[in-house]
Write the structure tokens for this entry.
Amino acid sequence: MHASGHVMSGLLAGVGFAQLAGLDSGPGVLAAVTVAAGSTGITSPDIDLWLKGIVRHRGITHWLPTVILFGATTTILAANYAPELTWVAMAHWTGLFVHLFGDFLFGMAVVGADGPGIPSKGPNSGYVGLGLFRSGGGAEWIFTWLVLFPVLVAAFKAWSGLDWVPTLLLLGAGVFYCSAWSQKGRH
Ligand SMILES: [Zn+2]
């Protein structure tokens, strides 16, 4: 999946998270950005791209038990030692799941893996995924910007009460910026 898809699906889930958690717009935006961070780049399961030679891409960091254990640990630690940050840990944890779901839908097979998507049987085996849009990046890019982005803008506008133009500019710039620093290509 492209970085922009991970950023946008993370932000979209984050707006939902902020609404469910009943957060005000300030902490709400922070929560949305935290979910997007959990879904994108070095703060997501794609940290394995920065650990080349140590772990395989879409291996153990993309394995459901790892994500469950990691998120439960950070959430329990936060709840015990910094309760005011518990929702931050939970927002990040949510982002990790969003990332796995994105790779499940769009993740093409990586070299050495036994299929597209994410591992299910073990950290490096039993790959499951739909591997949508294998024709390449174009179709996913169109889906990301023509379907996901408008939905995100509408959801964010409804939640924040901002006008269309500032919402569009804010989110567009944010997604573009995050996609640019996080990673290149399909992951
Ligand atoms: Zn990934």
